[in-house]
Amino acid sequence: MKNRSPLVAVVYDSASRGLGELTGRTEQVALSLGRGAECAGAAACLLRVPLQPADWILLDGADVIVFGAPTYMGSVSAALKVFMEESLGRFLGRVWQDKLAAGFTNSAAMSGDKLSTLTQLAVFAAQHGMLWVSLGQLAGWSTTAGRPEDLNRLGSFLGLMAQSNADQGPTEVPPLADRATAFEFGKRIATLAARWADPQ
User: Fold this and answer.
1) E strands, the chain, in order
2) Residue 176 burial (CB < 10 Å; 0-12/13-18/19+)?
3) Which CATH architecture has domain 7-197?
4) Residues 23-75: tens digit of each pLDDT
């Protein structure tokens, strides 16, 4: 369908291991990514796990599904893993085959083994037959002239990495650089989704 706005669905967990004052830090990444997607002409829908039946139907009709979770012990959070396992019916029916997919994660440490989480999300998308969208940004803060305010300050390529200090809540972290990186990633995802939905 020509000139259709692509739908970017963001499925994420942001529970912060039940620590109420910290809950919502990963959600800030999802919100920034969604705003970036909308800025580039897409419709963005944020779905926090656990999902309702109508949410699954929305995912089935989305052009892109972005998966996001905090990194705990080198892996996605338990709630996001439950979602992944609940997608078995979609996996067997190839419902998400050839959709675009992308991912993001957040942890307290600069590294925190976030690459392991992004790899887990990319493999999950591949199992569904989806096409993975990389971050598409050069690494920031990687030279003597670099600064912590640079985009992609953590130097990720597979997907988006964000960092939130363990003693700060969602009004303070992730820092503006990570939110801006997420915004730009959302724009990239929306642009590619439009190209994929209408290759002309």
Assistant:
1) 7-12, 43-48, 64-72, 75-76, 100-107, 131-132, 160-163
2) exposed
3) 3-Layer(aba) Sandwich (3.40)
4) 888 999 999 999 999 999 999 999 999 999 999 999 999 999 999 999 999 99
